[in-house]
Amino acid sequence: MLATCDSGALPAETASHGLDGAQWLFERIHKGRYYRVDEWPPWAGIRSLGILFLQSTRLKLKEGRTY
Prior knowledge:
two-stranded antiparallel sheet
């Protein structure tokens, strides 16, 4: 998924903030450039990427408890 990701599609910052909900933050350096995506609330693609990363760890995620 990351190998096919267009680095231009990851803006330096796209932050908005609220009082409730999930916030997903991703950072990347590609060819010497820094990219950061800071989403609240997260759009579906960012949430899916975050869940993929979490599932690759030994963390035990409760179904329906990660948003």
